[in-house]
Amino acid sequence: MSKNSKPGEFSLWSIAVPAFGPSLLFGVGEGAILPIIPLSARDMGSSLAGAALVVALIGIGSLVSNIPASIITAKFGERRGMMGAAGLSLVALLLCVFSTNLWQFGTGVFLIGAAAAVFNLARQSYLTEAVPAFLRARAMSTLGGVGRIGLFAGPFIGAFVIHLVGLTGAYWVAAVAIAAAGTLAGWLPDLVSDASVPVKGPAPTIRSLVMAHRRVFLTVGVGILLVSAVRSSRQVVVPLWADNLGLSPAATSLIYGLSGAIDMLIFYPSGRIMDKKGRRAVAVPSMVLMGIALLLIPLTTGAATLLLAALLIGFGNGISSGLIMTLGADYAPRRGRAQFLGIWRFFSDIGGSGGPAILAGLTAVVTLSFGIAATGFLGLAAAAVLGYWIPRNKATVQ
Is pLDDT of 6 > 70? Predict the structure, then answer.
């Protein structure tokens, strides 16, 4: 495989199963346990606030592990990184199943987030190198899309097994799915490095990469942070506003599910547009649509109008599938690629953690509608930042 392949010489189908299959299976595993983690925490005597904190440990584990994950991937390689992450995730899941107190359970949840950081970093780094630039956005949007399909399917598979064996069934579903993901990752073809390019100077460090690419991090990186903040907030906005309107849990779940279905189904066209027309052609419209939809949500008065706004959010988020990974791959240097992507994912996770926190803070200080509207303005700000700083031509920056 070569990044210099020409159109017609490389097909995503040639690596589809080993490259995208692990992401689908890992997504199924995550989706199976995410709704169950707070229930398990409550069963161990946790308060509601404590259960929410335990859930947040997944994100915290991922956030603090991005940089170490990049170092691990750079040292051992992408394929081994994914296999090792699957192994760590299995250990963490077993710890969750057999834990006897909340501290042990919380440690297991934290390790699941850390394992996800290694897995996600390694799979992105692999595709960055393996797929030629003219197919990069399609590869990344497909990677993001199959992960979303897994997250969508996981709760249903978990619910079926829980019905048969109880709450721990979800963790066993995750264990089987993630073990299969690690096994499939082992079939990935090894990357072929370009031996004709001489390697000069010391290996890049995290500090040297931050300094060398500080302009990218302070421009497009800030846009990525804002995108992640809006994306993570949207998952909270719809249920909260539905509750504010007095809608039933069933109606809320239906609206949320339909929005997620739209989000999940349109990932591939977005990648094709990014490859043909450039990254701005998707980045700006997606954030404008999400920003407008979030601004409209406080104006909705019932299930029908909320559904329309939620569908617009799902569409806006769906067409941006793979955007963050594609931009990271565009700017990543050949030497220090994994470390650069670790820094990039760190920016993304800061936004992902900060978005709901900003929403919660503004809701507590002002009102829920004000917090949602502020999130909408973050979406418009993301569109402005990315629209200004992403190169206007359709070629990648490398």
Answer: no
Residue 364 burial by Cβ neighbours in a 10 Å radius (0-12, 13-18, 19+): exposed
The share of the chain scoring above pLDDT 90, in percent, equals 51
Q: How many CB atoms lie within 10 A of CB 6?
A: 9
Buried/exposed 311-344: b ≥16 CB within 10 Å, e otherwise = bbbbbbbbbbbbbbbbbbbbbbeeebbbbbbbbb
Longest CA span, the chain: 65
State the first-to-last Cα distance of the chain, in angstroms, to the nearest integer: 18
Residue 82 in this model has a pLDDT that exceeds 80: yes
**What is the pLDDT confidence band of residue 245, given thresholds at 50, 70 and 90?**
very high
DSSP codes of every residue in 215-248: HHHHTHHHHHHHHHHHHHHHHHHHHHHHHHHT--
- Give the pLDDT of residue 230: 94
Burial class (CB in 10 A: 0-12, 13-18, 19+), 383: buried
Q: With residue 163 as reference, give the H or E element that holds it.
A: helix 136-165
Nearest to 87 by CA among 95, 321, 314, 42: 95
pLDDT exceeds cutoff 90 at 48 = no
Residue type for 205, please? T
